[in-house]
Amino acid sequence: MAGLNLRFTDEELDALRERATAEGRSMQAFAHDAVISAINEHSRLFNEAAEHVLNASAELNKRLA
User: Fold this and answer.
1) pTM metric for this prediction
2) Tens digit of each residue's pLDDT (9 = 90 or more) over 33-59
3) Is residue 60 part of a domain?
4) First to last CA, the chain
């Protein structure tokens, strides 16, 4: 499994530690899930935008075909 090193300021690291502790999770698990969640959210937003563009241009696309 590949690894990744991330750098945080002391304040960011403290905030990460506090949130992970508050949820009863390790910092690694908390950070991992946050990154995966961000990736999924980006994909969701992209898909919504693409669907909107396709719907908005559907009539024009029919005329151009």
Assistant:
1) 0.66
2) 999 999 999 999 999 999 999 898 988
3) yes
4) 47
